[in-house]
Specification:
single chain; about 110 residues; alpha+beta; Arc Repressor Mutant, subunit A; 3-stranded antiparallel beta sheet; 6 helices
């Protein structure tokens, strides 16, 4: 069996610069996708207790998912008194996803 052709240097560099494995790992869970969808529909930051209803899991489970999303830069957290409220970093998320799409398009153009 023959070895696959090596990736063009520009393609590999573009993908390495654009792709964020932690972000994609954070988004690959259905519960976290539900959280992101809920936050995307809200203008104001949301308390963890308000997110429990959307996900069908308990408070601590939602908190663990939010921690992963925060570490990946998908959401941000602000403390308000005794509670923590979360909001979607939609601009940053869109920017990373667009950069990933642009990198893939660049690779496709090089192949054609």
């Amino acid at each position: 069996m023959s070895e696959p052709a090596p990736l063009p240097t520009a393609c590999e560099a573009a993908l390495s610069a654009a792709l964020r494995p932690a972000l994609f790992k954070a988004l690959c869970d259905p519960v976290r996708v539900s959280i992101v969808a809920r936050l995307a529909t809200r203008q104001d930051p949301v308390a963890v207790s308000d997110l429990v209803a959307c996900c069908g899991i308990d408070f601590s489970g939602v908190s663990r998912h939010l921690k992963l999303l925060r570490q990946a830069g998908v959401v941000s957290a602000t403390r308000e008194g005794r509670s923590v409220r979360y909001s979607l970093n939609s601009d940053a998320l869109c920017q990373v996803l667009r950069a990933s799409a642009d990198a893939l398009e660049q690779c496709s153009e090089q192949a054609g």
